[in-house]
Amino acid sequence: MDFTLTDEQTLLRDGLTRFLATRYDLEKSRSAAKTGAGWQPDIWRAFAEELGILGAAIPEEYGGIGGGPVEMMLIAEALGHALVVEPYVDTAVVAAGLLRRAGGDLAAALVDRIVSGSAIVTLAATEPTSGEFWQNVSTRAERDGAHWVLTGSKIVSVGTPLADTVLVTARTSGQPADEDGISLFAVDVKDEVSGLMAHHYRTVDDRRASDLEFDGVRVPAAALLGPEGGAWQSVSRARDEGAAAVCAEAVGAMRKVLADTVDYAKHRQQFGQPIGSFQVLQHRMVDMYMEVEQAAAAARLAVLNLQADEATRARAVSAAKATVGRAARFVGQQAVQLHGGMGMTEELAVGHYFKRLTALQFEFGSTDHHVQRYAWLTAR
User: Per-residue pLDDT for the chain (380 aa), expressed as one digit of tens each?
Assistant: First the structure.
């Protein structure tokens, strides 16, 4: 696989890496996540205005820079390395992809606002009874004159407490589990919405998420994005794009965890010598390195297949998600154990990275789900 970066891609990666190294402080980020607003708006504005990364993987006709999946991967990996909590994947990858494919004036305006950093848009697709299968949509949308009326529930909508607009999957026809009949609606949540109840909370990895209850929420007819009942193919693709992005993010996080663990082993003394001199621990760190490199290769393969046909894309993404999920579990656990008791504290970065690597195993489909999906896809 030829994976030589262009000069522009190298500049993008190196510029973002330098920015995060000098201006993204982990302690400040954790403080914002735990006791503050949950993110740093000034950092988000800098992503848009100084770095342009919010539009780096978006076509020029939508106000983006005109990059693609590779640019997305480079950004996500750098953000994972710095443990960034701002919702890049949820907004600039998943939501922006859905909006671009939906088309229309509202979608174009929202993408433009995402690129400029003036709006955060997230997706609410998971339901209490849907499990791993996003096509199991019970939330209903019924036409009422010049409006649509939404009724139903969504859970674990990541980034929604920070959002201006939420993209909601709802069934306009058919039965739960039917792929046909699923529509996508843009719900403006900047102000209080009649009939919408939201429970916001902090996740184990210091993200913000929401459970949403729609009780007769009325949205204008223009809030329907794309064709009525025809959203599933786009939602399915968005889920694969999100999965590939978090795979890249996990690779960045694992590289940081591995580097910190090796550095700790060089300096931690036991029996009068660095613990890194013990062969059994060297073998463990080599195993960690092997897992990281396998995960990186799988993530790259998934990214390079995001624009392939549906079956090829799905196989590559599921293979990557399964591989990265296994690696994230192994690398995270080994890093904590090799740091000893310090690995369980919040004073060291490794504890925060471990939480994020644990959560990444379940985003956009769990490791087990993607193993089963890959087996089903290859048996067809």
Answer: 567 899 999 999 999 999 999 999 988 998 888 887 889 999 999 999 999 999 999 989 888 898 999 999 999 999 999 999 999 999 999 999 999 999 999 999 999 999 999 999 999 999 999 989 999 999 999 999 999 999 999 999 999 999 999 999 999 999 988 999 999 999 999 988 999 999 999 999 999 999 999 999 999 999 999 999 999 999 999 999 999 999 999 999 999 999 999 998 888 777 878 877 778 889 999 999 999 999 999 999 999 999 999 999 999 999 999 999 999 999 999 999 998 877 777 778 999 999 999 999 999 999 999 999 999 999 87
Is 2.40.110.10 the CATH classification of the domain at 123-230?
yes
Which residue ranges make up each domain of the chain? 7-119, 123-230, 233-379
Instruction: State pTM to two decimals.
Output: 0.94
- What is the C-alpha radius of gyration for the chain, rounded to an integer number of angstroms? 21
Report the SS3 class of residue 59.
coil
CATH class of the domain defined by 233-379: mainly alpha
Of 293, 232, 280, 286, the residue nearest 262 (C-alpha): 286
CATH number of the 7-119 domain: 1.10.540.10
Beta carbons of 172 and 183 less than 8 angstroms apart: yes
